[in-house]
Predict the structure.
Amino acid sequence: MNRWKHRWKRAASLAGAALVLAAGLAACAPAEESSSLAGEESSQLALENDGATTQLVVAEISHSPERTAALEEIAAKYMADFPQTRVEIVTVEDSQEALAITGMLNTGYHPPEEIRALFSQLIGKPVDESFTLFPPFTTDCGKNLSLGKEVFLNAGCRFQDQGGITIGNGVLIGHNVVLSTLNHDPAPARRAWLHPAPIVIGDRVWIGSNATVLPGVTIGDGAIVAAGAVVTKDVAPNTVVAGVPARLLRPLTEEELQ
């Protein structure tokens, strides 16, 4: 048994969380070594390494705070050993809670204060009184969302927040915008692997209707994303991007910046 199998074997018996690890750990294990470990019926762990990338997936069904805490402790130790590694933990309970809360949010009429209360419950922290949302709205977990002040989300937005979504102050997001923080692995043999990467949206950004922002993208302060754009790369501050994939259309004029 190689050191990775030994180190992570006990993680396969922990129920309560789904952990996705995608990181560049050059030559941390021999290229030919890979393992797939199954623990309890409620758990599954898989570890693959190609000499350049290591991904750990622990898929869980049941949930208990104690076991989730144990998994978080393992992840913390791993990150201490490899500071360059991003470890994302998503509990099954988070996704089920998000389904329940968005189900309430998207059913019937709610006055603005009720919408803010439900959204605060969804993300696990208070939203500012200036926050405005027009339902329907969905997100996979909610707990990985962070919003500034005077944020407006128009109807039909769909977020996939496992990789983390940060939205600055004064941001306007149009109808049916998708913010996606997960990629599947391009290799057919590893297609089920998930690679999380955060989306960061700066202050006073305007994202037009039906735009899609892909994992790892940062949109600079004051930028405009045109309707229908698919944003695959970072957007510079105070610029306009459009198209599929999105490309620089023009910088904002001095008059527009006044």
User: Anything to note?
Assistant: The radius of gyration is 20 Å. Residues 1-63 have pLDDT under 50 and may be disordered. The first helix runs from residue 3 to 8. DSSP finds five helices and 23 strands in the chain.
